[in-house]
């Protein structure tokens, strides 16, 4: 419980006391505090009244602290340092920073982002902890409440206090098991459509918000057979290794090397690539990194934002309601 005495206390008095203890000279202390000597003398009188002690005695050699002041000199530095941390300091060093960042990510994004991100954090910021959870439809509310620091999702409609930064995505590729009949060779659109397909989607998007590939194909009057829709990329990889299904996804996850011996990626059929280039699609929402405006002035959050964007830019996977697949 905060006492009445603390409520009435001006924290600037403690700063002045610390400077007086360091300088032991009113003139030099006044210069450091950018105040006049008379003003500092008044501040010293307030300090004496607050602590009911003289605190200093004047001598020919300057100010000599009383036993009470010397006791305060042992406590003040840590106290003022804690206050400065609460108020926020411009100083930030990743290698000494201790803190936790909470991320909300689609499983599709986690596959490509976390391996590289955590490897770099271990090198440059070993005391940083990351808590990664699956993004939910109420991610904007969770950002506002401080339950999460960052979220990645398709930015369609964002509230005023939510900042959305588009992530540059890699072009889509067609993935299949290593022993698939199409592996390692060019194939046409007819062959592409003759196989069953898996479709990744983001939880929380409307069902009618189909992927770009299906939207483009539909405008040409053709459709692919969707055997499985899932949010779980690792589950989709498992299905690819046990069936002759195909999966269209961005190439970002390949850098992690987690599935190098299980699946292979091929270019989309040239005809489909031309269709995508030449066809307008309503489903071009950009996968974005979201954060709340409350973190804008935090040096630690700005550093993590830059680090996330660095890794997301080369590893983004987008499916339903996004620029690819």
From TrEMBL:
InterPro entries: LysR-type_TF, LysR_HTH_N, LysR_subst-bd, WH-like_DNA-bd_sf, WH_DNA-bd_sf. Keywords: DNA-binding, Transcription, Transcription regulation. Belongs to the LysR transcriptional regulatory family. Gene3D superfamilies: Periplasmic binding protein-like II, Winged helix-like DNA-binding domain superfamily/Winged helix DNA-binding domain. This is LysR family transcriptional regulator. Residues 9-66 form the HTH lysR-type domain. GO terms for molecular function: DNA binding; DNA-binding transcription factor activity.
């Amino acid at each position: 419980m905060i006492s009445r005495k603390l409520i009435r206390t001006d924290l600037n008095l403690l700063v002045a006391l610390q400077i007086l203890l360091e300088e032991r000279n009113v003139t030099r202390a006044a210069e450091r505090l950018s105040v006049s000597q008379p003003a500092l003398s008044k501040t010293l009188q307030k300090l004496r009244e607050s602590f009911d002690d003289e605190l200093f005695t004047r001598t020919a050699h300057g100010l000599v602290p009383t036993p009470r002041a010397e006791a305060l000199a042992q406590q003040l530095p840590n106290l003022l340092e804690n206050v400065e941390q609460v108020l926020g300091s411009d100083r930030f060093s990743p290698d000494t920073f201790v803190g936790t960042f909470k991320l909300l990510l689609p499983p599709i994004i986690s596959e490509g982002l976390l391996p590289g991100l955590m490897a770099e954090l271990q090198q440059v910021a070993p005391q940083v902890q990351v808590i990664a959870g699956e993004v939910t439809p109420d991610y904007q509310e969770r950002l506002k409440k401080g339950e999460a620091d960052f979220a990645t999702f398709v930015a369609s409609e964002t509230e005023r206090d939510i900042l959305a930064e588009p992530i540059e995505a890699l072009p889509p590729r067609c993935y299949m098991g290593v022993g698939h009949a199409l592996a390692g060779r060019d194939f046409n659109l007819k062959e592409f459509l003759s196989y069953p397909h898996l479709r990744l989607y983001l939880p929380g998007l409307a069902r009618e918000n189909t992927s770009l590939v299906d939207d483009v194909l539909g405008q040409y009057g053709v459709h692919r057979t969707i055997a499985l829709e899932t949010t779980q990329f690792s589950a989709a990889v498992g299905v690819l290794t046990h069936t002759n299904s195909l999966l269209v996804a961005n190439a970002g996850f390949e850098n992690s090397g987690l599935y190098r011996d299980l699946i292979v990626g091929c270019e989309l059929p040239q005809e489909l690539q031309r269709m995508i280039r030449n066809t307008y699609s309503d489903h071009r929402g950009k996968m974005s990194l979201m954060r709340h405006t409350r973190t804008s002035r935090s040096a630690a959050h700005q550093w993590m934002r830059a680090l996330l964007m660095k890794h997301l830019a080369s590893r983004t996977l987008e499916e339903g309601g996004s620029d690819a697949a």
